Amino acid sequence: MSDDLFPVPADWAASARIDKAARAADYQRSLEDADAYWLEQARRLDWNTPPTRASESSFDEADFTIRWFADGTLNASVNCLDRHLAERGDAVAILWEPDDPDETPRQLTYRQLHAEVCRFANVLKGAGARRGDRITIYLPMIPEAAVALLACARIGAIHSVVFGGFSPEALAGRIIDCDSTIVVTADEGRRGGRRVPLKANVDTALALDHCSSVHHVLVVRATGGTVPMQNGRDIWYDEAMAQASADCPAEIMNAEDPLFLLYTSGSTGKPKGVVHSTGGYLLWASLTHQLCFDYRPGDVWWCAADVGWVTGHSYIVYGPLANGATTLMYEGLPNWPTHSRIWEIVDRHQVHTLFTAPTVLRALMKEGDAFVHVTSRASLRLLGSVGEPINPEAWRWYHHVVGEDRCPIIDTWWQTETGGAMIAPMPGATDLKPGSATFPMPGVEAMIVDGEGRPIEGEGEGNLVIARSWPGQMRTVWNDHDRFFQTYFTTFPGKYTTGDGARRDADGYYWITGRVDDVINVSGHRMGTAEVESALVLHSAVAEAAVVGMPHEIKGQGIYAYVTLNAGEVPGEELRRALIQWVRAEIGPIATPDVIQFAPGLPKTRSGKIMRRILRKIAEGEVSPQALGDTSTLADPSVVDDLVRSRLAFA
Ligand code: 6R9
């Protein structure tokens, strides 16, 4: 960790809307006079009925409730579109950069986007969608993805976006869990010059057992590739749009009505459907986008995430559009066709703020500075980071080589569950330390507690928890409110458990140290070790599997799997390759194991619990008895010797 201080640059200090004193005062007021503060903030949205109540929330078991602006009504698509038409209807809302740099970019003004969204909302209604229905969106990074999200919001349907890199099995699981009636997809996606068979994946998913709730599939013609269409079920997007009216009154929603659900991995069980609200979420996405990035009309904003993750929801679509921003959407990969691509896009579209992930920076950093130097990047004023802890080396490279020491680095810590940034700098208000996400946002009562839940004041390290509700907080796990409570509010009763560890330094800066549970972070993507284990044990050769994270130079963490085979199965290269392929097919390429170690047995306590602490150490290559610690509580301590021997054999 680094303790160097990068003060607010003079130009930001002079122009930013919030300076150091204002940030501190705002924070204090947000906690001490919370109701007034939040009702005031709520005015940044357009309400049909403005709320008169702010938070009515409690994290205690007896009266567990999370509720914000409960008597307010609004529509999210109106806030992202209609209300901008008078003032900036002809301003660009979405700037789209295609995968292939030789193709022409597309742009949609607010007026055009509004018309498309209304049309598609009517198409959805024509396909039977009603308020409260779940609609699964499985699209590449094309403007139609934003259109689809906002069209759902317009009619009060709940969207569930599934990342295009997920397999048919993973897609089916997410469709089944929320009983989706409609899927919106494309013929194919494109990434780095390769085609992704999205429609074919949907067909496979819908043919699987129990995946029977879907009655219509809407298909965007993205590449023109030939795909079979099922009569009566499948509808071409362009054909339906050509018939649809561009007039669609927005459904008036309660602030607490779900806006969307988004599946994310946890430490146990299958992925959970994280449910976000209409009012609180939209306010949080919009407010944090403004506070962290100080957006001004005309700036080109680029969040280089995929709309399949929460970062894409909050900072490609909802936050920027609620703020009337020009949001850039990129179809492809940051390093294709060359390692300069991301910087070429910055130049081509005169990007003001770039928001990306540390894994992208590490991968590009490795290729050398020349790929950066061949571009200008003169338009850049601000750089953002999200998804995992940013190591100080990558931070410095981003700051010095990419931003030429001129752009503050906004390292935002948050989660799918939090809806938007929770701990982050503000460019005009926060002196930076490389690797620290700095201070909590307004209303975020962050605390560090020890293993028993006792608060650690001042300098110290422990579990990061949040002591009170904030507007962007998830409201429940789809169909499983009890799981919501059990997962987040029982480890440290009365507090929201983030699952992350953190250190607070002498100046009050927060440093996120990474997950303290069985979630691993691969290239900024969350993966539950249990999910990969379940996929592995479905293979006929596998008796048992245990998965842990391992340090990885580019991805942050890699996936390390210990596999015990059924009697008669032969460990070897061929089976290793087959298992890797198997996991990719079950979950998707993001879950590809980096290492598979065949193990005759796994280290278990006498009660049968796998001791992951030991497996993590062995995966890290730390195999000395001191590193492995006490193994005396294991049912069979000799298992560890076997694991160490076979680890050393292939290391
Ligand atoms: C937004 C997002 C959440 C987990 C989170 C933490 C890690 C995200 C971070 C960060 C350190 C940051 N994380 N941002 N760790 N510094 N700036 O990534 O959501 O996919 O749900 O992941 O990612 O471990 O708990 P999600």
UniProtKB/TrEMBL annotation:
Binding site for Mg(2+): 537, 539, 542
Enzyme category, top tier: ligase
Cofactor section: Mg(2+)
Acetyl-coenzyme A synthetase N-terminal domain sequence ranges: 25-80
Residues in AMP-dependent synthetase/ligase domain copies: 82-469
Post-translational modification: Acetylated. Deacetylation by the SIR2-homolog deacetylase activates the enzyme.
Binding site for ATP: 387-389, 411-416, 500, 515, 526
One Pfam assignment: AMP-binding
An annotated Gene Ontology molecular function: acetate-CoA ligase activity
PROSITE patterns, per the entry: AMP_BINDING
UniProt keyword list: Acetylation, ATP-binding, Ligase, Magnesium, Metal-binding, Nucleotide-binding
Modified residues annotated as N6-acetyllysine in this record: 609
All copies of domain AMP-binding enzyme C-terminal, residue ranges: 531-609
Residues involved in CoA binding: 191-194, 311, 335, 523, 584
NCBIfam families in the cross-refs: Ac_CoA_lig_AcsA (TIGR02188), PRK00174.1 (NF001208)
Known role: Catalyzes the conversion of acetate into acetyl-CoA (AcCoA), an essential intermediate at the junction of anabolic and catabolic pathways. AcsA undergoes a two-step reaction. In the first half reaction, AcsA combines acetate with ATP to form acetyl-adenylate (AcAMP) intermediate. In the second half reaction, it can then transfer the acetyl group from AcAMP to the sulfhydryl group of CoA, forming the product AcCoA.
Record family assignment: Belongs to the ATP-dependent AMP-binding enzyme family.
Name assigned to this protein: Acetyl-coenzyme A synthetase
